## 1
Amino acid sequence: MRSFSLVSSALAATCLVAPCRGQGVLDPQGPIAAAERLILLNATAIMLVVVLPVIVLTLAFAWWYRASNTRAAYQPDWSYSGHIELVTWAIPAMVVILLAAVGWIGSHQLDPARKLQSDARSIRIEVVSLDWKWLFIYPDQGVAAVNELVIPTGVPVEFVLTSATVMNSFFVPQLGSQIYTMPGMATRLNLLAGRPGDYPGLSANFSGDGFSDMRFLVHAVPAADYDSWLARTREAGPALNADAYSQLARPEGNAQARTYGSVDPNLFERIVTPTEH
């Protein structure tokens, strides 16, 4: 019975971990996510400089000072060692300094608002977090989509984000840098997909009953496929005007992906700074 329980627990753990493989921060698909993974690995390596020796020394001390070891010297009056004090304070101090340097440099190099250097012209996408779905507006292309984001590979994407309800958080782990969306404010995030693929996105901030449904897919496609998607969307999608937006803004869990063939050009500005009546 015990063996069956252990096997069942192992299988359950495997089922929970397996879907996450290849879809997290350790599987970067863009330069921002790759740089963030490097910071994570560097910070882990720096901390292991302290963690591993502490583990080894703990086991070594426990073994050496066991009751049966008559060679271990018992010194009840010992109280101070300058050499030990130097080691126990200097190494953690160096670790803190190195971690601070890694964090300082990374926080400036990976500033979400910092535009990415590329020969390709960036595209602008306006993001609105709703209850409980994501609205993506392409202002220069005149289209919009819900819970579906299509971007060309190798092209910098400049996101401008806000919330129409409560504070939320936009996060595509394989592309990097989660950032908050707040009502009445617009934040900026610059990302780039380095290769074609479908990358899961989600809300990383609890925002109510339908929070778990706030998931979307980022389709990174070649430029020709991106242009084809834009053409199909303009032909087939309905218009996203004030009336359509008022319907869309109603709370809705597990919202289906949909597209809009045209968008009110001033819609995003009105969402950020709504007119009070």
Note: The longest helix spans residues 31-64.
## 2
Amino acid sequence: MKEYRLATWLELRAPFDRIAHRRMLTDMSHRHMTLQQLVECSGARRNEVRAFLAMLELRGLVTLREAEVAKSMFGALRPLAGWLRRALRSAHIGR
């Protein structure tokens, strides 16, 4: 699965001058995003997001990478588990 990240900011022209497209640009300027993540965060239809990404790719404005595949369904929770473990450890030490 591909992930997209904005390489450089651009001024949007019709038909891409909607709030949903600006929201996608903002999110992609901060981190790599998959097609599904962009659909969910923007509220745009999947085919609209695909057309937008195709335009960005054609103009060389995005970088691509392959998304990492989670080894388990709990892989995405691993950062939260580490934070929780540290928080509980520091709370225990503070007593």
Note: The CA atoms of residues 3 and 9 lie 17 Å apart.
